[in-house]
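hiii so um. not sure if this is the right channel but i have a protein structure encoded as tokens and i wanna go backwards to a sequence. like what aa goes where. can anyone help
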């Protein structure tokens, strides 16, 4: 369901349920939570096995939920996404093939989304009478802008890799997304971690400026 390997300074997390297009049930979400909690490497690389990145939440699980169970399942997915976003290092999603629903939301929680030309993206929940509840309604507009987020979420339409790149949904399109993880692993790790913390800081401008100065001074002093 989830394979973890370490290759130098990169921890590779592989969603490994190809027969279900790597759909996520509770066990998969818990495995992701444990894997990111155990990670210490400067770079984590998330990928999917087989022909898909991730089909999102396992619909067999979702359809069996009552209201309380749905809220609990959403909270579990949110905790996983928040853990990826808050990881003290860079997290790269290598998207090769379809990313749907919760798969898009998991990718949105990563620092970089790197797509192959075969990648496609869709927030398909609206077509099923649902919507992405793993942080997608907050991260999607922050990353692509409110208008584009409305378009993607309300239509449920599918976009290809080049369209996703123009939207800002993905950072790069390449045949070898793993190379981007290796590229990040080759830079100064202290600077990498500090920069991520600074770029993720949503404080007001004055507070952000102060923290930026302090972080820069610490790096220079300790360098």
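sure thing!! here u go:
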């Amino acid at each position: 369901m989830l394979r973890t390997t370490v290759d130098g300074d990169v921890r590779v997390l592989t969603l490994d349920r190809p027969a279900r297009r790597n759909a996520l049930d509770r066990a998969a979400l818990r495995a992701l939570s444990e894997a990111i909690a155990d990670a210490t490497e400067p770079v984590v690389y998330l990928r999917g096995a087989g022909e898909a990145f991730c089909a999102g939440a396992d619909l067999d699980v979702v359809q069996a939920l009552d209201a309380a169970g749905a809220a609990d399942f959403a909270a579990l997915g949110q905790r996983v996404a928040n853990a990826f976003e808050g990881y003290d290092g860079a997290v790269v999603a290598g998207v090769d093939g379809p990313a749907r629903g919760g798969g898009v939301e998991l990718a949105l929680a990563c620092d970089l989304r790197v797509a192959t030309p075969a990648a496609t993206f869709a927030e398909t929940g609206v077509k099923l009478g649902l919507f992405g509840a793993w942080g997608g309604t907050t991260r999607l507009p922050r990353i692509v802008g409110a208008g584009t987020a409305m378009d993607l979420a309300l239509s449920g339409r599918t976009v290809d890799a080049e369209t996703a790149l123009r939207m800002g949904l993905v950072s790069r399109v390449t045949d070898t997304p793993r190379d981007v993880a290796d590229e990040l692993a080759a830079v100064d790790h202290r600077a990498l971690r500090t920069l991520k913390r600074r770029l993720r800081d949503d404080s007001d401008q004055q507070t952000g400026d102060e923290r930026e100065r302090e972080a820069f001074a610490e790096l220079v002093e300790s360098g």
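oh and The beta strands are 2-7, 10-15, 43-48, 90-95, 98-100, 112-115, 120-122, 159-160, 172-173.
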